[in-house]
C-alpha cells in the first residue's frame, strides 16, 4: 500500500501545481480579452468537496471567465448527498445570473438511484454549457483478474458474474451505469459496490478487495503505468490518446457501450436568454484559449463547444438513458 500512496499523491500534487500555474499564467490573457459585464460577484456552486476533477476545472475556469465578464467569480463548495445538496440550493435561487451550478453527469441519473432528490435536472435548471467531457476506462486488479484482454474478461463475467464485482465511486456516475449496462449486454446481473469517492474505490481495487472498476482515465494513469491496475477497455467512442493500445468496449462488439463523464454549468430555471448567451460566449471563449485547452487536456478532459440547446438535448437523452439502465438492472434508490 505504500507504493499506492505515493502514486495516488502524484495526481493531487499535479492538480495543485496546475491550478497555481494556470491562474498565474492565464489571468492576464483573460483580462486583456475581458468584456464590460454587469460587474459584481457571481457565486459558482460546486456541489462536491475540493480536490476532484469537477472542483479543479471549476477553479481553472472561474477567474478567467469572470474577467471576461467584468465580474468576480467565486467558487463555493457545497458538498453532500452526491451533489444533491448544492444543486438543490442553486435551484432555489433567483434567475439573475449571480448564482450558477458547476457540476457533472451524475446529476442526470441521481434521482433514479438516490432517494430524496428534490429537483429535476431537466426542468429546474437553465443549461448554459457542457464545458468538457471526461473519458473512462475499465480497469481490473491484477491480483484477482487474470484474463489477458477484454474478450476473455467479458466471457468470464458471462460465466461467473459473482467473481467480478465492480467498484463505483458514487451513485449515478459512469462507474455505476456502465457496469450495469455491460452486465445487461452480457445477460447477467452485475455486483456493483458503492464507495464514498474515487479514493476508497481505488484503494480496494489496488489491494484486490474488488475486481473491477470503470474510472476516469486521468485518475488511474499512475496505477496503470506502475502495473497496479490493468486496463481492459475504454468506454469512449474512439481510442484514447493516453492509452492508445486499449480498445473501446464499442469496438469489441458492444456498440451501445459508449459512456463519457462531463462537467457543465447551469443557472436556475428561467435564466434570461441574454444572460445564458453572455455566459456561454465567455465560457467557450475561455475554453478556446490554447493554454486553458492544454491544461484541461492534461487533466484527462476534452473541452466542448456545444450550444445551450445542444446541451439541453444531450441532457434529456442522458437522463432517459439512465432511467432505462436503472430500470432494467433493477437498481433500487438508496
Mean pLDDT: 89
- Percent range of helical residues: 40-55%
How far apart the termini lie comes to 31 Å
How big a fraction of the residues is strand? 15-25%
Order of helices and strands: HEHEHEHEEHEHEHEHEEHHEH
Please give the oligomerization state of what you see.
single chain
Outline the low-pLDDT stretches. Answer: 1-37
Could you give the count of β-strands? 11
From the spread of the alpha carbons, the general shape counts as globular
The number of helical runs is: 11
Description:
The protein is an alpha/beta fold and 334 residues long. The chain is built from eleven helices and eleven strands. It has a six-stranded mixed β-sheet with strand order 2-1-3-10-4-11, with helices on both faces. Helix 2 (53-69) links the parallel strand 1 and strand 2 (72-77). Helix 1 (2-33) runs parallel beside helix 2 (53-69) and helix 2 (53-69) crosses helix 9 (273-288). It is globular and about 60 Å long.
Amino acid at each position: 500500500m505504500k507504493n499506492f500512496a505515493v502514486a495516488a499523491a502524484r495526481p493531487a500534487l499535479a492538480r495543485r501545481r496546475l491550478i497555481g500555474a494556470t491562474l498565474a499564467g492565464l489571468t492576464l490573457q483573460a483580462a486583456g480579452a475581458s468584456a464590460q459585464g454587469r460587474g459584481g460577484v457571481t457565486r459558482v456552486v460546486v456541489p462536491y468537496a475540493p480536490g476532484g476533477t469537477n472542483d479543479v476545472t471549476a477553479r481553472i475556469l472561474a477567474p478567467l471567465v469572470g474577467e471576461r465578464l467584468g465580474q468576480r467569480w467565486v467558487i463555493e463548495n457545497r458538498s453532500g448527498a452526491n451533489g444533491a445538496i448544492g444543486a438543490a440550493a442553486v435551484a432555489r435561487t433567483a434567475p439573475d445570473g449571480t448564482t450558477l451550478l458547476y457540476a457533472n453527469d451524475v446529476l442526470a441519473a441521481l434521482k433514479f438511484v438516490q432517494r430524496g432528490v428534490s429537483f429535476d435536472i431537466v426542468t429546474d435548471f437553465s443549461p448554459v454549457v457542457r464545458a468538457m467531457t471526461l473519458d473512462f476506462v475499465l480497469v481490473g486488479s491484477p491480483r484477482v483478474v487474470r484474463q489477458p484482454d477484454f474478450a476473455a474478461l467479458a466471457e468470464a463475467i458471462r460465466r461467473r458474474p459473482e467473481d467480478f464485482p465492480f467498484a463505483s465511486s458514487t451513485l449515478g456516475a459512469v462507474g455505476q451505469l456502465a457496469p450495469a449496462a455491460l452486465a445487461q449486454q452480457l445477460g447477467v446481473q452485475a455486483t456493483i459496490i458503492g464507495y464514498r469517492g474515487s479514493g476508497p474505490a481505488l484503494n480496494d481495487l489496488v489491494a484486490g478487495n474488488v475486481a473491477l472498476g470503470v474510472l476516469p482515465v486521468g485518475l488511474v494513469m499512475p496505477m496503470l503505468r506502475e502495473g497496479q491496475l490493468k486496463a481492459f477497455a475504454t468506454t469512449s467512442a474512439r481510442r484514447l490518446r493516453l492509452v492508445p493500445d486499449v480498445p473501446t468496449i464499442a469496438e469489441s462488439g458492444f456498440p451501445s457501450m459508449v459512456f463519457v463523464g462531463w462537467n457543465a454549468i447551469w443557472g436556475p430555471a428561467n435564466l434570461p436568454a441574454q444572460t445564458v448567451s453572455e455566459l456561454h460566449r465567455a465560457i467557450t471563449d475561455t475554453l478556446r484559449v490554447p493554454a486553458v485547452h492544454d491544461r484541461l487536456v492534461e487533466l484527462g478532459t476534452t473541452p466542448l463547444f456545444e450550444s445551450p440547446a445542444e446541451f439541453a438535448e444531450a441532457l434529456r437523452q442522458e437522463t432517459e438513458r439512465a432511467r432505462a439502465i436503472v430500470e432494467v438492472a433493477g437498481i433500487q434508490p438508496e
